[in-house]
Amino acid sequence: MQNAAALGRGWPITRTEAEALRLTFNKRHPKVIR
Length: 34
Hints:
Helix content is about 65%, strand content about 0%. It has helices at about 1-10, 15-30. It is elongated, with a radius of gyration of 10 Å. The protein starts with a helix and ends in a 6-residue tail after the last helix.
């Protein structure tokens, strides 16, 4: 899912962005552990 956001923008996601997205995703879906 995180890669889809990067592909939609047309440029590779950075590690910082990936971490931010992961934290945001975990807040929205606390039961999902990845």
